[in-house]
Write a structure and sequence with these properties.
The chain is mainly alpha-helical and about 350 residues long. It contains ten helices and two strands; from the N terminus they run ααααααβαβααα. α1 runs antiparallel to α2. The longest helix has about 45 residues. The two termini are about 70 Å apart.
Length: about 350
Amino acid sequence: MAEGALPPLPEVRGQAVPSRPSMAEAPGEGPRLPELLETGWRLLEEVETSTEPSSGAPAVQVKVRQGLDALQRAAAMVAELELFSENEELEEIASADLKYLLVPALLGALTLRQVEPSRRREHLESARRHFCRFLELCRAYGMSSARPPPAAPREDSGAGGAVQRDLLAMASSRQAKIERYKQKKELENKLASLRTFVESGQADEEQVRELYLLQAQKWITISFEEIESIDQEMVILKSRDTMKQSSAPPHGSSQQVRTPLKPFILTRDALQAKVFGAGYPGLPTMTVNDWYDQRKREEAARGQSAPQRPPADTNDEELQKERQEKLKEEDDEEALQKARDWDDWKDTHPRGYGNRQNMG
């Protein structure tokens, strides 16, 4: 992220007026351009040096919004006053107006400090445009020879071209980082000594001009670093969106949530339901036909096929005969006798009969 910005420098008192007077000092209604720039620059510095545990803290975000408002109004004034033009030379700009070159860069730095996840890509694209605008402006005035990096590099055909492009980009990026780091350290040393001299009120107009130009050079380096960071984050966001789309189920294929069934005792008829219900009054009982009726209603509500209800004329004797025939087919007389005895015993004993272990 952007380094802590320095507050606007005070105007030099008692110095010679530059060849072309500053147009930004003209009085008008509301905050003037110098005040708006000073407010935005100061709030950026406070955000960068905040002691809040998170950049998303409400107090921090309030300053971000206030700083953005001030700098956006300053940018509108700069455009209205036409302070900068591609048809003029750097020497034609008044020294007092040089600091307004930094408005787009400061806007980009504060835009990155916004923390709305749903609008993160929008903020990244907006910040990138601000930094590119600043770099193009500096390039037009001959302060930098490098163009802003393209948002989307052109793809070479074939895997070999892609590999070669990546290797060249890595080598170029590494070399550029080394050069920017060296320039940054030199600029910071010059700025530290010159700024102290200017703030003492002893600097002349040429020294103030040099200080503003050094500030612009520093922000050129910061802008390239921020654009590189933005591009990397954009790749991560696109990759994350692709993963979400691939992992999301197809439209309309989501499984319906089934309502959990409550426990109950399934019996053959109403008489048996009363017998079991007497033993467990807290646990509901349900006959086979009642169960089929309930399942039919539930499945019909979900639009699914309901289970077939057994014929109405099916009675206990027929069910018993079918069970006996099935056991006979298996030629297991002993199992058949045990099944019969067990059914007879269950008909006359409620569930849990004889259990004396957990009586209260």
